[in-house]
Amino acid sequence: MDRPRVKCSSTRAREAAALRARASLLANLDVAVRWGAAKREQAAGGQFGLFGDGDVPPPALEPAAELSELELLRYEKEALGIYLSSHPMASYPGLAEAATCTVAEVDAHYRRVTSEGHPGRVRVALAGLVQSVVKRPTRKGTMMARFELADETASREVVVFGRTYDEVAPLLEEDAPVVLVAEVSQDGDATRLVAERLVRWDQRGEPGASVPEVAVVSFELGDVAEHQLLELRSVLDELGGRTPVRLAVATDEGRYLYQVEGAAVDAARLDELRATCPWLTATLTVDKHALVAQRANGFDRRPKEPPVEVPF
What we know:
The protein is α+β, with helices and mostly antiparallel strands. The chain has 3 domains: about 55 residues, no CATH class; about 110 residues, CATH 2.40.50.140; about 80 residues. It is about 30% helix and about 30% strand. It has 8 helices and 9 strands. A 5-stranded antiparallel β-sheet has the order 3-2-1-4-5. Strands 8-7-6-9 form a 4-stranded mixed β-sheet. Strand 1 and strand 2 form a beta hairpin. The radius of gyration is 26 Å and the shape is globular. It starts with 8 loop residues before the first helix and ends in a 19-residue tail after the last helix.
């Protein structure tokens, strides 16, 4: 069995030094360009001193802060057209868990839900980054927008118009991390996504945001003993708060999501939960079920699903 490669301290030090050097070069790019232009002008004019005293001295590079992972990924996308080393979604813990399905799974999710006897329009919550925003007037004189929503699996075009445009348009910025509530409907041989609500991931904690959140506790069922599950229930009681808890349980048959009856945790104490039960991961994310069930004005559109009792 191949063992995972672990970077030694010297390798990490070299990579960190390279990143610092890259950040310094980028920050001083304009200075270097001006120096190069001055050198060319000097060469073209033949302005050289006998002992080199007329030469244009190289500029001193100003120190610069290290590039963040998001900045590095943005430069990769600009230079290559793709994210090479990672994806920006990975920089926002919990964002992917806020989606009903991935962007690539939208069509399959739509077919599955409509085949079960539901109407021809399905509401979904999608998570990703906003890209390629275009805003323009309609024939009626109102405004509409088109943009791409991209996650690690694919990207899809989304349209927004009507009253929703006024709410969503100020949030549409390039590479903004968002959770999108959209209506999926059949449009010829394809499906169309129409935005109903947009939640900026980086603004969800601000006053007045009114975004439902949930703590997702994930673990491999085969690696957990019964006494550990009982300990988890006890710890959840000790860390009680107002954020509901859902269990993401991975088994050989797949991954299952359970809502624990009556369990709610203090979101500020998730670190204590991770420390007490190191065999799990706990992530604070947007409650996609509650978000999809809400209208834009806060009223429910369909009945909420009853919680599932987990037999500890």
